[in-house]
Design brief:
Blueprint: H1 10-14, H2 16-26, E1 32-33, H3 36-39, E2 56-58, H4 63-76, E3 79-83, E4 99-103, E5 110-114, E6 119-122, H5 128-135, E7 140-141, H6 154-160, H7 167-170, E8 177-183, E9 189-193, H8 204-208, E10 217-224, E11 226-227, E12 231-239, H9 242-254, E13 261-266, H10 267-277, E14 287-295, H11 297-313, E15 316-321, H12 325-336, H13 338-343, E16 348-351, E17 354-355, H14 361-375, E18 379-384, E19 389-396, H15 403-420, H16 439-442, H17 445-458, H18 476-479, E20 484-485, E21 488-489
Helix pairs in contact: 9-11, 10-12, 14-15
Cofactor: FAD
Organism: Bradyrhizobium elkanii
EC number: 1.1.3.15
Amino acid sequence: MSIMMPAADQAVLARRAEIAAALRAIVPGEGVIDSAAEMLAYESDGLTAYRQPPMVVVLPDTTEQVSKVLKYCQGQGIKVVPRGSGTSLSGGALPLADGVLLGLGKFKRIREIDFDNRVVVTEPGVTNLAISQAVAHAGFYYAPDPSSQIACSIGGNVAENSGGVHCLKYGMTTNNVLGCEIVLMSGEILRIGGKSAENAGYDLMGIITGSEGLLGVITEITVRILQKPETARALMVGFAEVEAAGECVARIIGAGIIPGGMEMMDKPAIHAAEAFVHAGYPLDVEALLIIELDGPQVEVDELIKRVEAIAQGCGSTSCQISTSEAERNLFWAGRKAAFPAVGRISPDYLCMDGTIPRGALPKALARIRDLSEKYGLGVANVFHAGDGNLHPLILYDANKPGEIEKAEAFGADILRCCVELGGVLTGEHGVGIEKRDLMPDMFTEIDLNQQQRLKCAFDAEGLLNPGKVFPTLHRCAELGRVHVHAGKLAFPDIPRF
């Protein structure tokens, strides 16, 4: 493992059998896993380049059990790593050798469907797609749709603030979650938000969403559901140059058109997806845009004409418009299967996740091509083009000495490029361990210390998911120290506590 993690506490490891027995008293039956063979399934999340078996796995199925587990671990000074379905691509659920892995896979019940208020109250282990399936009979759906929606859990979506192809128009997870139940490291159970879109006080949901398991363990979530649009049609537009596709994206948004989704794939990704799904993608183009327009039929018909004209003005070489719901879904099937499709053409790949301003897309693509030549590694590009969220897939072979290190360096340079172009390190996959050591490229030490103070307010002893997000995790007491320079206290008139 080339990424350093916190050193294991040997005193805790020496009490492993005692800890497992205590956890079994809280979660009886098959709720605790401590054999080496059975814990292998938990040694990694979707970022499989990094693996670490946990000390012990606990699988509670009630909020009360979660509370007791966390309270026990805090009292014993034991680290805890929360885990959903394990589809995270940033190492957010990577276990610790001296930590308890707290799996939420048994929290798989939808507790309430409230069509009057257009919300669903669900447990965190329910898959993203299962929410839409549960309300489809009444013409509703849950908008955020990550490519892994068939497997990823809604709790993990909240932890990572996941996106998806339809988030351009309908928002990320943070725009579609209204409330949650969260258990703090102390065992305290909090209820934040609810069924109402507006709540008094600080926006605590905005803090919890995207907190990557560092602040608490989510045990219930209230999400917003939407009524399906009257009409939805997709355009599949090919371009001879990637830059022309990027220009088309900018012009569509500039014209005031907000598609339900707008995705881009380059030639390697197109060929991989077509061989895997047979969606009818054109193979003689350098870039492909999939643009979905939804709403009343008369509006969609007009928008299709406008988007076609914009694409032609950008030099499009082909344009196919879906004529049925089955064809629209087929267009999207290739895009949603792009990651596994690329896995068929390369022994290994790193899926990167950065975001740039839409106008910087041509520069970013040119830089990625240059880096590909520099490192001698192939790359397939898949983008949430509408909101500038890039997913370059760096192709490598872990069996070849030095290739994983080259892939990591290549990925780090892509993310630095995103920041240099005015973007950010992540769009939807989170920081985890993958981008942890790049945080100083985006944030100053003051910024990072302020973020850690927030972490301290929820988890003063730093036991929840340590080693993630922050390149250097300070003790909370260190962050509270007052700096004295030349014997003079800064701002002496401010009250001190």
